[in-house]
Amino acid sequence: MVLYKRKPIILPDPRPLPPDLNIFVWHIDETGEWFPTYEEYIERLDFYTRHHFTCEITGTSCLTFFEALDSEESQFKFVEEKFPLKLREPIARFLHFNGIRRLDALVEQVYSKFKNDFFPGEIVYLRKAKDSNSSTPQPHEETSAELSTNSSSHTYQQKPYIIKEKVQFNPTYDPVTNEVLIPGYSKYMLVEDDASSSSSFSHRPNNSKRSFIADQSQFYRDRSTFTKHLIKCFFKITLQRASTKMGAPWCVKKEYLMMYGLTMDWPEDMLKFKDDEPALPQLSPPSQVKHLAVKDEVPLNNNDSSNNNEIAPVDELSDKSISKEMKQAKKKQTNKKKKKPKKTKEDKEMEMEVETEAETINTSVGKMEADDLNRAVMNDNDTDIEVDIDEDSINKKGTKTKKRKKTKEKEPNNNKKKKKTKKDKISESDKPEIDNKENKLENNNDQSEVDARDVVENKVESTPAPPPVPVITSIVDDLKLPYTGPPKSGTFHHLYYYNENLELIPITSNPNKFHYFKDFQKILQIYQFLNTFNHQIFLSYFNLDQFITSLKCTDPSELNGELVKITLNRNDEEDVDDDENEVLSTWERNPRIRKLINDKNTCQGRITYKILKSEDASDDVLDNFNNNGSALLIEAFVSLLRLFVNEEGEWTCVINDDYLTNKGFIDKNGTEDEDDDEEDSDELDPIIEKCLNYRNVNWVERLLKRQFNNGHWLIILLGIMQDSSRIAKYSTFIKDFKLKVLPNDISSTQLPRQLWRNFCTQLSLSEKVTALWILVDLVTNYSNDIKTAVDDSMDLCTQIRSERFRISRDLKSESVRLSTLKEEDPTYLEQKEKVDLLQRDKNTLDKRVMEHDLQRLKHLGLDRYGNRYFWFDITGIQLEEEVDGNKTSSSNYHTGRIWVQGPSISTAEFILNITEQEIKKWMKISSDNGKIAATREVFGVYRDDSGVFYQVLDNDTQVELVNSEGVFNSLLELTPIQKKIIDETPECLLLDENQWYSIENFDDFSAFIDWFDTWGRKEHDLLRQYKTVSQLIEDSFKKRHISLAILDEKEIDLLKEFDKNEFFERELDIELNETQRAETEDDRKHLEEEKEQETTLEKIDNDLDDLADQIMKLDDLSKTRKNLNTIAQLEQERDDLLARRQEIVNSQSLGARILARSEKKRNKQLIANKLSKQTEILTDLLNYRHFVMMDDTIKWENHLSKEFLGAPLRKNASFGKRGPNIRLYSIDEKLKNILDETSRTSSPTVMTQSSI
What we know:
Elements: E1 3-4, E2 7-10, E3 26-28, E4 33-35, H1 38-48, E5 53-54, H2 65-82, H3 85-95, H4 103-114, E6 123-126, H5 139-149, E7 160-169, E8 172-173, E9 180-182, E10 185-192, H6 194-199, E11 211-214, E12 219-220, H7 228-238, E13 239-241, E14 250-252, H8 254-257, H9 286-295, E15 310-311, H10 319-336, H11 345-361, H12 370-378, H13 431-443, H14 445-462, E16 496-498, E17 504-506, H15 520-532, H16 534-537, H17 544-552, H18 556-560, E18 562-568, H19 576-580, H20 591-604, E19 607-613, H21 619-623, H22 631-641, H23 674-692, H24 699-704, H25 712-724, H26 728-741, H27 751-762, H28 765-782, H29 784-819, H30 828-852, E20 861-862, E21 868-870, E22 881-883, E23 886-888, E24 898-901, H31 905-912, H32 916-929, H33 931-939, E25 941-943, E26 949-952, E27 958-962, H34 976-984, E28 996-999, H35 1002-1011, H36 1017-1028, H37 1030-1060, H38 1065-1077, H39 1081-1116, H40 1121-1147, H41 1152-1195, H42 1199-1205, H43 1227-1236
Parallel strand pairs: 2-15
Antiparallel strand pairs: 1-2, 1-5, 3-4, 6-7, 6-12, 7-10, 8-9, 10-11, 13-14, 16-17, 18-19, 20-21, 21-24, 22-23, 24-28, 25-26, 26-27
Helix pairs in contact: 2-7, 4-7, 10-12, 15-28, 17-41, 22-25, 22-28, 25-26, 26-28, 29-30, 29-43, 32-33, 37-41, 38-41, 39-40
């Protein structure tokens, strides 16, 4: 039987035929179900086509219902055809109530026990005699002559025999020592098979059949009829658990007991596993006998294992199936309750009347549809299901209405009318309190019965009870849960994203501008592939920040960063020429520092702060890729190019011809552009041919000889692109790539350098990513090395899981032993250390399984709106690598973040009930005007400044959805898209699968975890997946934050230094006093005179300094007449200058001018110093994080390539004399190294595998 959530699925009972048989219906042949409407049919078919089913016989999961059904039918036929009939009964007797609990161990024991044990009626074949003196006849002795006569027309076949009789001999014991001298054995009488004797050997006289005696060593079964796979399939078909208790033995299913002559008599040593006998049901009053006969077709207390079967969800159930579900739901309730006193007939009639009246009042509560009830019943044992169904809700047509609600259980004092509804889910800690209250009520039943009835009557007569709020007690679809309002903490406002320049910025930094990097998914795919298969491509580990930084280092403008210019606001126009050449920066990186700089303009006003772009890096800086951070990206390109051809000249990445096409491609307008492609290719062909054969060496030969240095890897890349241009999905990009990268004038000596400069300057970041992604896509799908690595990793992970299972088994047994000890026991501490050691070993193996699992990455799960959550450290990532025998973890975090991807168009259509046209329109408007404008225009929802959400209707009327306190309008039924907009806010809305948000802090991710609802199907699965790796996720966040904490500390120090160089108002007033004083013409003339005098004084002071220096030099020389005359002349000039200076000083008012001039000069120098210092600090703050990441990327080295190949990949690293079959680590070596990390002293024997 097909399994759904590990339980057999039971198909619904057939529908009653409609009154009119001349109608068209939709039919599912495999199940026999029919549906009157297409909607019901497609919903049921969608359930069957989900990959949630399991084949019971093979255990294969993730199948559709039809695949699982076909698998079971084929396996059942296979067992019926192959498995010997005469062997089934002995095996079934051996398995019935067998004490071995593990199925794999039972398979091994049956195989070893019955491999050499045969039974009458089996078909066997003789072995070839090893001893020529053997008395057993051999096929060649009897038939060689016969076959030789017809060798031209017949081929030899092994002759079958049938076991006629079997005799068992007991072992022989030594009477003294009681040792076994001769073990027990069996003798068999074999006769020729009838079919064989009548066909192949029918020429014998009278068609006689030979018979002889042999033991089990002289014959064998057909190998294909007795295999472990067949034994396991026979188990799955024949066996079941004998009871529902933990540790229950296996037993033969009821339908096979009579076939194999077995009974369900339990062995005495296994009676403890037998299910308890069900309690006898209470006798019902005569008035209820008829009702129970119709409603409860099966006894409620039925402990048969078939009651655990899974019920498939259906849209409309028949009365019979509904009554079964009602019975199962009530059974779970009654199992939790104690027996309650019977109610009188009058009490029941009053209770029915109150319920009927309450139901007419609470029509808005809603009724549980049949599929909702069924989904509640079919859920696994994650939650308890409690459903109250009013017996009076059966209408005249016989159908039943069901309420999806949970209320307090009925009290024996008829207090149902006084019940309280629960808005929140009842936790496990609340249940004991409720049970205690119910017990007290039951104990005081007689005393409170009349009072309770009076309270109910008064309540009904006065005011109707408020409508009970339905409480979900089982896992249902997320959007069917009651909406409780937006998250309190503004969860989505703390997310970040990468913009078009690959800058990590907050979502709320610029709500009116949202230009995200549209190919960011390709970056994540490339990065995950390179780190997952780093040992296969000889590329050392690097984190995501390093990869993105290396990608940006190929942009000349990124190498010099930005600069900050600070100027005083004056009336003069001395810097006009400089302003014309300035280019304002459009980057958004480091938003905190950028906001600080921009706020300075508004605060001070007298000073202007500008963020400008620096000049692009020179060609020399660009060519020095070893010291500019782009070496990592080049290593990534080269590592992928090596996978296309090995050093022996064999193509290891061969593309299937089915993916190639020579036809013209159709553009967006529906016209073929074959002619345009031919014209462009004609123009490019001579240039490409010249590039690919640069210096008369073909690019394939360069790839074969591993000539990647000095930019030759770009020639090889062009060759791969040229060969891949016939693949339809790459052709358009490859055409643009060749146009931009190929130089117009090819230099005979500088072609690689020309290609590199064009690659850096002509291609955008998105185009560089796409070029690398094409290589990743090709090797992922067509590389033999990658396929081999995946297969080997699966073998390694299987062996690690096997060892982990052994440790888990030991851990369980040791934990049980520890629980039996007391802390005072002398062996308690020793036992506790043993348990702790086994737990550490299990955790180590869990981590190693994650690191070596190279299969496709899976997301953590989806939230209620279809957003997918990824943690890229979950598979295939080894954060530690060995360098010279030592483990290093310099880049000790992978991504250090949780990533959120928007829903795809099909997912949004299904979950949010919106159209594809609406989604595309929203995406276009959000790209131009921001998400807020797009959300209001397309969906009519917006939020005002006070935080109130409104819905704009067609007639321009506005309806309030959520108030400023976060309380939603209970009078409205919100649509899924309205809930998503309210929860995520318009500026953070996710509706595009190309949009990726990152959660940077673990506290922010914890807010998401708190927001998720465990009662929703999608979020329940997400939370369950998160719990298994919660500690690892938290550790990855911490590692990245520790690495970035140093940057924060440096920025804090720079900000403190900036505060010390802030301008004071007095300093700015003195500096700007010159222009503000010039109000009249006399003032202006006076100022001009003062400036002229100051200029003259400065010139005189400079001349005096020069004269003093000259006089001192001459004074040191010999006292010649010439020198004395020169000294006298200089002294005379000095006296004249001093006299002139004194005259100018005397003309001013009594030294005040001198003091003002000195103060002004000192203040001017102080401001100049502060301007220079602030410019330096702000420029450093703005570029600090980027330059630090550049330095970190420059320090990255390919240790893996150096260790095994002797040099980085870009420097022509090859296997050389060691040959192309160099081994990194075999599976044996890897497994041994992993087990050495645990307390295991010996590793299991494994087969030698190829290296990976």
